Amino acid sequence: MLSWKDILVQQERYKDALREAEKERLIRQDLARFIINHRFYCRILRWFGSQLVTWGYRLQERYSTAM
Q: What is the largest CA-CA distance in the chain?
């Protein structure tokens, strides 16, 4: 038969498991938010990098005869 102490220990384990599950859920939520933001910034940086290359090429074309 279970004693009162055993019941309290089980309740405490259950509360610990709930806290751990909530912590894991929050971590996953933050990670998903980070990945979405990361994709957005990567897309912007990729576009900006390609623009810099294009602008640099045009500058070289324009001013290569000046040297």
A: 96
C-alpha triplet 43, 40, 32: angle, nearest 5°: 135
pTM more than 0.70: no
- Token pair of 48 as six digits: 């900006």
Terminal Cα-to-Cα distance of the chain (whole angstroms): 95
Question: Could you report the per-residue pLDDT of 35-63, keeping only the tens digit for each?
Answer: 888 888 889 999 999 999 999 999 998 88
3-state secondary structure of 64: helix
The H-assigned helical ranges of 1-67 are: 4-63
> Which residue did the predictor score with more confidence, 22 or 35?
22
In angstroms, rounded to a whole number, what is the distance separating the alpha carbons of residues 24 and 2?
Answer: 31
What Rg value do the Cα atoms of the chain yield, rounded? 29
